[in-house]
Amino acid sequence: MYQVRFVYWNLLGETNMSFGGLSINKTTLIFGIFIFFVELSYQGLRTTVLASPSAVVLMYHRFGEGEYPSTNTTVEQLDGHIKELLSGQYKILPVPEIVERLLDGEALPSKTIGITIDDAYRSVYEVAWPKFKAANLPITIFVSTAHIDSSSRRHMSWGQLRDLAEQGVTIGHHTVSHLHMIAASRELIDKELTEAYSRFEEELGFRPRVFSYPYGEASLAIIKQIRDFGFDAAFGQHSGAIGNKSDRFYLPRFSMNESYGGLDRFRLVINALPLPLTDVTPVDPLLGAELQTPNPPPMGFTMAEHYKNLEKLACFLSHAGRAEIERLGHSRFEVRTSQPFPKGRTRLNCTLPGPDRRWHWYGRQFYRP
Protein backbone atom coordinates (compact mmCIF):
# COMPACT_ATOMS: atom_id res chain seq x y z
CA MET A 1 0.00 0.00 0.00
CA TYR A 2 2.94 2.35 0.73
CA GLN A 3 4.30 1.84 -2.78
CA VAL A 4 0.98 2.72 -4.40
CA ARG A 5 0.72 6.00 -2.43
CA PHE A 6 4.35 6.87 -3.24
CA VAL A 7 3.78 6.60 -6.97
CA TYR A 8 0.52 8.52 -6.79
CA TRP A 9 1.84 11.50 -4.78
CA ASN A 10 4.92 11.92 -6.99
CA LEU A 11 2.68 12.20 -10.01
CA LEU A 12 0.39 14.88 -8.58
CA GLY A 13 2.72 17.76 -9.27
CA GLU A 14 3.07 17.11 -12.99
CA THR A 15 0.50 17.19 -15.79
CA ASN A 16 2.76 15.21 -18.14
CA MET A 17 5.63 12.90 -17.35
CA SER A 18 8.51 11.96 -19.65
CA PHE A 19 9.92 8.41 -19.79
CA GLY A 20 12.77 7.83 -22.24
CA GLY A 21 11.63 10.78 -24.38
CA LEU A 22 8.00 9.60 -24.40
CA SER A 23 5.49 12.08 -22.95
CA ILE A 24 2.70 10.43 -20.95
CA ASN A 25 -0.33 12.21 -19.57
CA LYS A 26 -0.54 12.01 -15.78
CA THR A 27 -4.16 10.83 -15.77
CA THR A 28 -3.38 8.10 -18.28
CA LEU A 29 -0.47 6.86 -16.22
CA ILE A 30 -2.44 6.83 -12.97
CA PHE A 31 -5.26 4.93 -14.67
CA GLY A 32 -2.80 2.40 -16.03
CA ILE A 33 -1.29 1.84 -12.60
CA PHE A 34 -4.78 1.42 -11.14
CA ILE A 35 -5.66 -1.22 -13.73
CA PHE A 36 -2.37 -3.02 -13.04
CA PHE A 37 -3.13 -3.38 -9.33
CA VAL A 38 -6.75 -4.36 -10.00
CA GLU A 39 -5.45 -7.12 -12.29
CA LEU A 40 -3.08 -8.34 -9.57
CA SER A 41 -5.97 -8.44 -7.09
CA TYR A 42 -8.15 -10.29 -9.60
CA GLN A 43 -5.47 -12.86 -10.28
CA GLY A 44 -5.09 -13.50 -6.56
CA LEU A 45 -8.84 -13.91 -6.16
CA ARG A 46 -9.01 -16.10 -9.25
CA THR A 47 -6.31 -18.38 -7.89
CA THR A 48 -8.25 -18.74 -4.65
CA VAL A 49 -11.51 -19.49 -6.45
CA LEU A 50 -9.97 -22.07 -8.78
CA ALA A 51 -8.24 -23.96 -5.97
CA SER A 52 -10.33 -26.78 -4.54
CA PRO A 53 -9.83 -29.32 -1.74
CA SER A 54 -11.68 -32.04 -3.67
CA ALA A 55 -11.62 -34.34 -6.68
CA VAL A 56 -13.80 -36.93 -8.39
CA VAL A 57 -12.44 -40.31 -9.49
CA LEU A 58 -14.27 -42.38 -12.11
CA MET A 59 -14.29 -46.18 -12.40
CA TYR A 60 -14.72 -48.08 -15.66
CA HIS A 61 -14.38 -51.78 -16.55
CA ARG A 62 -15.15 -52.72 -20.17
CA PHE A 63 -15.74 -50.79 -23.38
CA GLY A 64 -17.90 -51.84 -26.31
CA GLU A 65 -18.71 -55.24 -24.79
CA GLY A 66 -22.49 -55.13 -24.90
CA GLU A 67 -22.93 -58.67 -23.58
CA TYR A 68 -21.81 -57.38 -20.14
CA PRO A 69 -24.01 -54.28 -19.61
CA SER A 70 -23.47 -54.07 -15.83
CA THR A 71 -19.74 -53.43 -16.31
CA ASN A 72 -19.67 -52.14 -19.88
CA THR A 73 -19.51 -48.60 -21.22
CA THR A 74 -20.61 -48.24 -24.83
CA VAL A 75 -18.30 -46.60 -27.33
CA GLU A 76 -20.86 -43.83 -27.81
CA GLN A 77 -20.98 -43.22 -24.05
CA LEU A 78 -17.19 -43.12 -23.86
CA ASP A 79 -17.00 -40.63 -26.72
CA GLY A 80 -19.52 -38.43 -24.90
CA HIS A 81 -17.58 -38.64 -21.65
CA ILE A 82 -14.31 -37.66 -23.31
CA LYS A 83 -15.95 -34.78 -25.15
CA GLU A 84 -17.33 -33.46 -21.85
CA LEU A 85 -13.98 -33.84 -20.09
CA LEU A 86 -12.35 -31.83 -22.89
CA SER A 87 -14.93 -29.02 -22.71
CA GLY A 88 -12.56 -26.79 -20.74
CA GLN A 89 -14.40 -27.02 -17.42
CA TYR A 90 -12.33 -29.83 -15.90
CA LYS A 91 -8.74 -30.69 -15.01
CA ILE A 92 -7.88 -34.36 -15.52
CA LEU A 93 -4.85 -35.48 -13.51
CA PRO A 94 -3.14 -38.84 -12.87
CA VAL A 95 -4.71 -40.56 -9.89
CA PRO A 96 -1.43 -40.83 -7.90
CA GLU A 97 -0.96 -37.07 -8.26
CA ILE A 98 -4.51 -36.40 -7.07
CA VAL A 99 -3.98 -38.54 -3.99
CA GLU A 100 -0.60 -37.06 -3.15
CA ARG A 101 -1.63 -33.43 -3.58
CA LEU A 102 -5.11 -33.54 -2.09
CA LEU A 103 -4.54 -35.73 0.92
CA ASP A 104 -1.25 -34.01 1.74
CA GLY A 105 -3.13 -30.72 2.09
CA GLU A 106 -2.40 -29.17 -1.30
CA ALA A 107 -5.30 -27.60 -3.19
CA LEU A 108 -6.21 -28.90 -6.63
CA PRO A 109 -7.71 -27.08 -9.60
CA SER A 110 -11.49 -26.83 -9.41
CA LYS A 111 -13.30 -29.85 -10.90
CA THR A 112 -10.28 -32.13 -10.85
CA ILE A 113 -11.05 -35.58 -12.28
CA GLY A 114 -9.20 -38.91 -12.15
CA ILE A 115 -9.88 -41.92 -14.38
CA THR A 116 -9.50 -45.52 -13.21
CA ILE A 117 -10.28 -48.82 -14.96
CA ASP A 118 -10.55 -52.14 -13.13
CA ASP A 119 -9.62 -55.64 -14.34
CA ALA A 120 -7.47 -54.91 -17.44
CA TYR A 121 -9.92 -56.18 -20.03
CA ARG A 122 -8.60 -56.32 -23.60
CA SER A 123 -11.20 -53.76 -24.70
CA VAL A 124 -9.36 -51.20 -22.57
CA TYR A 125 -6.28 -51.63 -24.75
CA GLU A 126 -8.09 -51.96 -28.08
CA VAL A 127 -11.03 -49.56 -27.66
CA ALA A 128 -10.58 -47.14 -24.77
CA TRP A 129 -6.86 -46.41 -24.60
CA PRO A 130 -6.55 -45.09 -28.18
CA LYS A 131 -9.32 -42.61 -27.38
CA PHE A 132 -7.92 -41.58 -24.00
CA LYS A 133 -4.44 -41.26 -25.52
CA ALA A 134 -5.68 -39.10 -28.40
CA ALA A 135 -7.39 -36.84 -25.85
CA ASN A 136 -4.23 -36.75 -23.66
CA LEU A 137 -6.19 -38.07 -20.67
CA PRO A 138 -4.17 -40.01 -18.03
CA ILE A 139 -5.61 -43.29 -16.75
CA THR A 140 -4.93 -45.86 -14.04
CA ILE A 141 -5.59 -49.58 -14.64
CA PHE A 142 -5.99 -51.97 -11.70
CA VAL A 143 -4.73 -55.45 -12.59
CA SER A 144 -5.39 -58.92 -11.12
CA THR A 145 -2.29 -60.81 -12.17
CA ALA A 146 -3.88 -64.26 -12.57
CA HIS A 147 -6.14 -62.88 -15.29
CA ILE A 148 -3.09 -61.82 -17.27
CA ASP A 149 -1.19 -65.04 -16.57
CA SER A 150 -4.13 -67.11 -17.83
CA SER A 151 -3.70 -65.73 -21.37
CA SER A 152 -7.44 -65.11 -21.43
CA ARG A 153 -8.63 -63.53 -24.67
CA ARG A 154 -10.85 -61.26 -22.57
CA HIS A 155 -7.89 -59.68 -20.78
CA MET A 156 -4.74 -57.88 -21.80
CA SER A 157 -1.38 -59.59 -22.07
CA TRP A 158 1.73 -58.63 -20.11
CA GLY A 159 3.15 -57.23 -23.33
CA GLN A 160 0.19 -54.91 -23.71
CA LEU A 161 0.46 -53.81 -20.08
CA ARG A 162 4.17 -53.09 -20.59
CA ASP A 163 3.28 -51.01 -23.62
CA LEU A 164 0.75 -49.00 -21.60
CA ALA A 165 3.14 -48.52 -18.68
CA GLU A 166 5.81 -47.25 -21.09
CA GLN A 167 3.27 -44.74 -22.40
CA GLY A 168 2.67 -43.36 -18.91
CA VAL A 169 -0.38 -45.34 -17.83
CA THR A 170 -0.42 -46.01 -14.08
CA ILE A 171 -0.70 -49.70 -13.18
CA GLY A 172 -2.44 -50.54 -9.90
CA HIS A 173 -2.68 -53.66 -7.73
CA HIS A 174 -5.95 -55.66 -7.73
CA THR A 175 -4.78 -58.91 -6.01
CA VAL A 176 -3.86 -62.12 -7.84
CA SER A 177 -7.27 -63.71 -8.35
CA HIS A 178 -9.69 -60.77 -7.97
CA LEU A 179 -10.08 -62.05 -4.43
CA HIS A 180 -13.22 -61.70 -2.32
CA MET A 181 -11.10 -60.20 0.43
CA ILE A 182 -14.04 -59.84 2.80
CA ALA A 183 -14.31 -63.66 3.02
CA ALA A 184 -10.58 -64.41 2.97
CA SER A 185 -8.18 -64.98 5.84
CA ARG A 186 -5.46 -62.49 6.66
CA GLU A 187 -2.90 -65.08 5.56
CA LEU A 188 -4.52 -65.55 2.16
CA ILE A 189 -4.73 -61.79 1.60
CA ASP A 190 -1.04 -61.41 2.46
CA LYS A 191 -0.21 -64.28 0.11
CA GLU A 192 -2.10 -62.70 -2.80
CA LEU A 193 -0.64 -59.26 -2.19
CA THR A 194 2.90 -60.68 -2.11
CA GLU A 195 2.49 -62.97 -5.13
CA ALA A 196 0.98 -60.20 -7.25
CA TYR A 197 3.85 -57.91 -6.27
CA SER A 198 6.28 -60.56 -7.51
CA ARG A 199 4.51 -60.88 -10.86
CA PHE A 200 4.43 -57.11 -11.35
CA GLU A 201 8.16 -56.90 -10.63
CA GLU A 202 8.94 -59.80 -12.97
CA GLU A 203 6.85 -58.53 -15.87
CA LEU A 204 6.82 -54.74 -15.47
CA GLY A 205 9.85 -54.05 -13.31
CA PHE A 206 8.06 -52.23 -10.49
CA ARG A 207 5.55 -52.58 -7.66
CA PRO A 208 2.26 -50.69 -8.00
CA ARG A 209 1.71 -47.99 -5.39
CA VAL A 210 -2.10 -47.82 -5.54
CA PHE A 211 -4.64 -50.55 -4.78
CA SER A 212 -8.26 -51.28 -5.66
CA TYR A 213 -10.42 -53.60 -3.54
CA PRO A 214 -12.06 -56.23 -5.79
CA TYR A 215 -15.83 -55.65 -5.75
CA GLY A 216 -15.16 -52.69 -3.47
CA GLU A 217 -15.38 -55.05 -0.49
CA ALA A 218 -13.45 -54.13 2.64
CA SER A 219 -13.52 -54.10 6.42
CA LEU A 220 -11.59 -52.06 8.96
CA ALA A 221 -9.19 -54.99 9.39
CA ILE A 222 -8.62 -55.31 5.64
CA ILE A 223 -8.17 -51.56 5.23
CA LYS A 224 -5.51 -51.62 7.97
CA GLN A 225 -3.83 -54.58 6.27
CA ILE A 226 -3.63 -52.67 2.99
CA ARG A 227 -2.26 -49.59 4.75
CA ASP A 228 0.34 -51.65 6.61
CA PHE A 229 1.41 -53.31 3.35
CA GLY A 230 2.81 -49.99 2.18
CA PHE A 231 0.43 -48.76 -0.51
CA ASP A 232 0.04 -45.03 -1.04
CA ALA A 233 -3.76 -45.22 -1.41
CA ALA A 234 -6.61 -47.65 -2.04
CA PHE A 235 -10.00 -47.33 -3.74
CA GLY A 236 -13.40 -48.90 -3.14
CA GLN A 237 -16.50 -48.86 -5.32
CA HIS A 238 -18.72 -46.61 -3.21
CA SER A 239 -19.83 -43.32 -4.73
CA GLY A 240 -18.71 -39.88 -3.66
CA ALA A 241 -16.19 -37.11 -4.13
CA ILE A 242 -12.78 -37.22 -2.46
CA GLY A 243 -11.99 -34.51 0.07
CA ASN A 244 -8.91 -33.73 2.11
CA LYS A 245 -10.51 -35.54 5.07
CA SER A 246 -11.20 -38.75 3.14
CA ASP A 247 -9.66 -42.06 4.24
CA ARG A 248 -6.85 -42.49 1.71
CA PHE A 249 -7.08 -46.27 2.05
CA TYR A 250 -10.78 -46.49 1.21
CA LEU A 251 -11.41 -43.76 -1.32
CA PRO A 252 -14.69 -43.46 -3.26
CA ARG A 253 -15.20 -43.69 -7.01
CA PHE A 254 -18.18 -43.18 -9.28
CA SER A 255 -18.92 -46.31 -11.30
CA MET A 256 -19.66 -46.05 -15.02
CA ASN A 257 -21.67 -48.63 -16.99
CA GLU A 258 -24.44 -48.73 -19.59
CA SER A 259 -27.18 -47.98 -17.04
CA TYR A 260 -25.25 -45.27 -15.19
CA GLY A 261 -23.13 -43.88 -18.01
CA GLY A 262 -25.57 -41.47 -19.64
CA LEU A 263 -24.28 -37.96 -20.23
CA ASP A 264 -26.65 -36.31 -17.73
CA ARG A 265 -25.49 -38.57 -14.90
CA PHE A 266 -21.89 -38.24 -16.04
CA ARG A 267 -22.08 -34.45 -15.75
CA LEU A 268 -23.78 -34.80 -12.37
CA VAL A 269 -21.07 -36.98 -10.83
CA ILE A 270 -18.01 -35.24 -12.26
CA ASN A 271 -19.31 -32.02 -10.70
CA ALA A 272 -19.85 -33.65 -7.29
CA LEU A 273 -18.41 -32.18 -4.10
CA PRO A 274 -17.41 -33.97 -0.89
CA LEU A 275 -19.78 -34.21 2.06
CA PRO A 276 -17.39 -34.38 5.04
CA LEU A 277 -18.81 -36.36 7.97
CA THR A 278 -17.64 -37.46 11.42
CA ASP A 279 -18.81 -40.01 13.99
CA VAL A 280 -20.12 -42.29 11.25
CA THR A 281 -21.95 -45.46 12.29
CA PRO A 282 -21.60 -48.33 11.82
CA VAL A 283 -17.86 -47.83 12.01
CA ASP A 284 -17.00 -51.02 10.12
CA PRO A 285 -18.34 -51.58 6.59
CA LEU A 286 -18.37 -55.31 7.39
CA LEU A 287 -21.67 -55.82 9.18
CA GLY A 288 -21.29 -58.26 12.03
CA ALA A 289 -17.68 -57.29 12.66
CA GLU A 290 -18.97 -55.28 15.62
CA LEU A 291 -20.58 -57.46 18.29
CA GLN A 292 -24.35 -57.85 18.21
CA THR A 293 -24.85 -55.66 15.14
CA PRO A 294 -28.61 -55.67 14.41
CA ASN A 295 -30.05 -55.90 10.90
CA PRO A 296 -30.68 -53.27 9.66
CA PRO A 297 -27.77 -51.64 11.46
CA PRO A 298 -28.01 -48.22 13.12
CA MET A 299 -26.70 -45.69 10.61
CA GLY A 300 -25.78 -42.11 11.42
CA PHE A 301 -23.27 -39.32 11.04
CA THR A 302 -22.42 -35.77 12.09
CA MET A 303 -21.79 -32.98 9.62
CA ALA A 304 -18.14 -31.94 9.76
CA GLU A 305 -18.85 -28.56 8.17
CA HIS A 306 -21.63 -25.97 8.38
CA TYR A 307 -24.35 -26.05 5.73
CA LYS A 308 -27.39 -23.79 5.60
CA ASN A 309 -29.72 -26.14 3.72
CA LEU A 310 -29.55 -29.31 5.79
CA GLU A 311 -33.30 -29.81 5.44
CA LYS A 312 -32.56 -30.86 1.84
CA LEU A 313 -30.29 -33.74 2.84
CA ALA A 314 -31.43 -37.02 1.26
CA CYS A 315 -30.17 -40.59 1.71
CA PHE A 316 -30.81 -43.67 -0.41
CA LEU A 317 -30.17 -47.38 0.15
CA SER A 318 -29.56 -49.69 -2.80
CA HIS A 319 -32.03 -52.30 -1.50
CA ALA A 320 -34.71 -49.99 -0.11
CA GLY A 321 -34.70 -46.68 -2.00
CA ARG A 322 -35.05 -43.38 -0.17
CA ALA A 323 -34.50 -43.70 3.56
CA GLU A 324 -36.01 -41.74 6.42
CA ILE A 325 -33.67 -39.23 8.07
CA GLU A 326 -33.98 -38.14 11.69
CA ARG A 327 -32.19 -34.98 12.72
CA LEU A 328 -30.78 -34.89 16.24
CA GLY A 329 -29.76 -31.40 17.27
CA HIS A 330 -28.12 -29.16 14.71
CA SER A 331 -25.73 -31.44 12.84
CA ARG A 332 -26.36 -35.07 13.84
CA PHE A 333 -28.41 -37.27 11.51
CA GLU A 334 -29.66 -40.85 11.80
CA VAL A 335 -30.69 -42.88 8.74
CA ARG A 336 -33.70 -45.14 9.31
CA THR A 337 -35.02 -48.11 7.39
CA SER A 338 -37.21 -51.03 8.42
CA GLN A 339 -35.90 -53.29 5.66
CA PRO A 340 -33.10 -55.69 6.69
CA PHE A 341 -29.93 -55.65 4.63
CA PRO A 342 -29.69 -58.62 2.24
CA LYS A 343 -26.59 -60.79 2.20
CA GLY A 344 -23.75 -59.34 0.19
CA ARG A 345 -23.20 -55.73 -0.76
CA THR A 346 -25.50 -52.80 0.11
CA ARG A 347 -24.77 -49.18 -0.75
CA LEU A 348 -25.79 -45.98 1.03
CA ASN A 349 -25.69 -42.64 -0.80
CA CYS A 350 -26.41 -39.28 0.83
CA THR A 351 -26.60 -36.02 -1.13
CA LEU A 352 -27.03 -32.35 -0.34
CA PRO A 353 -27.49 -29.51 -2.86
CA GLY A 354 -24.35 -27.39 -3.18
CA PRO A 355 -23.34 -24.21 -5.02
CA ASP A 356 -23.73 -23.72 -8.77
CA ARG A 357 -26.11 -26.68 -9.12
CA ARG A 358 -23.48 -29.06 -7.83
CA TRP A 359 -24.14 -31.75 -5.20
CA HIS A 360 -22.29 -32.74 -2.05
CA TRP A 361 -22.14 -36.54 -2.18
CA TYR A 362 -21.23 -39.17 0.39
CA GLY A 363 -21.36 -42.92 -0.18
CA ARG A 364 -20.67 -46.11 1.74
CA GLN A 365 -20.66 -49.77 0.84
CA PHE A 366 -21.60 -52.35 3.46
CA TYR A 367 -21.18 -56.11 3.33
CA ARG A 368 -23.36 -58.59 5.19
CA PRO A 369 -21.95 -62.16 5.25
Plain-language structure description:
The longest helix is centred in the N-terminal third of the chain and has 25 residues, at 26-50. The strands form seven sheets. Strands 4, 7, 9, 10, 11, 14 and 15 form a seven-stranded mixed β-sheet that branches. The termini are far apart. The protein is globular and about 60 Å long. β12, α9 and β13 (233-235) form a beta-alpha-beta unit. The protein has ten helices and 24 strands. It folds into three domains: 2-47, no CATH class; 53-272, TIM Barrel; 280-368, Immunoglobulin-like, CATH 2.60.40. With 369 residues, it is of the alpha/beta class. α3 packs parallel to α5 (122-134).
Features:
Immunoglobulin-like; alpha/beta; 7-stranded mixed sheet; 10 helices; globular; 27% strand; 5-stranded mixed sheet; disordered N terminus
Topology, pairings included?
Blueprint: H1 2-12, E1 16-19, E2 22-25, H2 26-50, E3 51-52, E4 54-60, E5 62-63, E6 72-73, H3 75-85, E7 91-92, H4 95-103, E8 108-109, E9 112-118, H5 122-134, E10 140-143, H6 145-149, H7 158-166, E11 170-173, H8 186-204, E12 210-212, H9 220-228, E13 233-235, E14 242-243, E15 254-255, H10 263-270, E16 273-274, E17 277-281, E18 299-303, E19 314-317, E20 321-322, E21 324-328, E22 332-336, E23 344-353, E24 359-368
**Would you tell me the structural class of the helices and strands?**
alpha/beta
Superfamily (CATH H level) name of the largest domain: Glycoside hydrolase/deacetylase
Which range does the strand content fall in? 25-35%
- Helix amount: 25-40%
What's the Cα radius of gyration? 25 Å
- Give the tally of structural domains: 3
Profile the largest sheet. Answer: 7 strands, mixed
**DSSP helix count?**
10
Give the CATH class of the largest domain.
Alpha Beta
Number of strands: 24
Give unreliable regions as ranges.
1-24, 26-49
Write down the overall geometry.
globular
The end-to-end span amounts to: 66 Å
The CATH architecture of the largest domain is Alpha-Beta Barrel
What would the average pLDDT be, to the nearest integer? 89
CATH topology of the largest domain: TIM Barrel
